[in-house]
Amino acid sequence: MRPTPEQLAAMPLFESLSPDELQAVASLTELRREDAGACLIGEGAPGYSLFVLEEGTASVLSGSDELGALATGDFFGEIALLGAGSRTATVTATSPVSLVVMFGSDFRVFERDFPEASALMKQTMAAGLARTSTPSDV
Questions:
Q1: pLDDT at 135 exceeding the cut of 50
Q2: Closest CA to 77 of 68, 92, 88
Q3: Of residues 129 and 113, which shows the higher confidence score?
Q4: Is 31 buried (19+), middle (13-18) or exposed (0-12) by CB count in 10 A?
Q5: Cβ distance 104 to 79 under 8 Å?
Q6: Which of 32, 35, 78, 110 has the most neighbouring CB atoms within 10 Å?
Q7: Overall pTM > 0.85
Q8: What is the pLDDT of residues 54-74, one digit of tens each?
Q9: Which residue, among 137, 18, 33, 30, has the nearest Cα to 75 in the 3D structure?
C-alpha cells in the first residue's frame, strides 16, 4: 500500500514539496505497519532505506545505551540514502507504528526526476542530523 500525497504533506520531511513532487514520492514509497516491540532496524545491519514515522513512537538504542525517542513525523535511516554503510543503532517500535518507507533505488529515481525537491529533502535530513548530538545514521 502506498501513502497518499496528503499523508506525505503532513510530514515535516515532505511539507515543502509541490503536489506533483508529493505524488512522485507517494509512487516511490510504501506504507508499512508494525506492532509495538518490533525491531525496525538493527545496529550493524546494512542500510538501504529511509523511514518516516507516519504514526507511533520508537526508541533508538546503541548497544544498551538509549540515544533517544522518535515520534510521529520523525525520520531515520537517512544516512543510508546519502551513501552510508551499516546502521549505528537499533530502532524499536514502542507503540504500534505506521511507516513510510523509501528504498535507496527509489530515492535515486526521485533525485533524477526532481533534483530541486530532492535537494530540499537532503537539506531537511542534514538539518535533522545537525540537531542531534549523537550519530543519526540508524
A1: no
A2: 88
A3: 113
A4: middle
A5: no
A6: 78
A7: no
A8: 999 999 998 888 988 999 999
A9: 137
